[in-house]
Specification:
Sufe protein. Chain: A; 3 strands; globular; 6 helices; alpha+beta; about 40% helix
Length: about 150
């Protein structure tokens, strides 16, 4: 599956960087300003070429998919990029994760927790914490791939 766009719902998806606000009145009040900012203005979105390592993880329950790519030079992560098809929280968490990864070592990659990511976005409602789990699954998979 090719991940060249973000989705705010499970229907047809807009191209990368374009977001529909349909249904926002029902959900925007539950998200922090940081979550909405990362969703509306994702950081480090897109392919990373050349990448040292890339992984793709998914949540089979909700259908969110995240591709995470990193470039590592002499120890720390120098760049991290993502592509995501998923909900507001999945996109925001992926965006924030790329910021947290940059400049960190492999050991630090393994230390970032779901709670750390959630708190860095001002907290996530329990019903949307799966976005943080998806992002942390990707970080763990990248760390495992890089230690080989």
């Amino acid at each position: 599956m090719s991940l060249h766009w973000f989705a705010t719902s499970r229907g047809s998806a807009p191209p990368v960087g374009l977001h529909s606000t349909a249904g926002c009145a029902d959900t925007c009040g539950v998200f922090s300003k940081a979550v909405l900012d990362h969703f509306q203005n994702p950081r480090n979105a897109g392919e990373l070429d050349p990448a040292t390592a890339s992984v793709e993880v998914s949540n089979p329950v909700c259908g969110d998919i995240l591709k995470l790519s990193v470039k590592v030079e002499q120890g720390p992560v120098t760049q991290a990029h993502f592509l995501c098809r998923g909900c507001t929280t999945a996109i925001a968490c992926a965006s924030r994760l790329t910021e947290l990864l940059s400049g960190n070592s492999m050991h630090q990659l393994r230390e970032i927790s779901v709670d750390d990511l959630s708190q860095s976005l001002g907290g996530l409602p329990a019903e949307t914490i799966h976005g943080a789990h998806l992002a942390i699954d990707a970080a763990r998979a990248i760390a495992k791939k890089l230690q080989r």
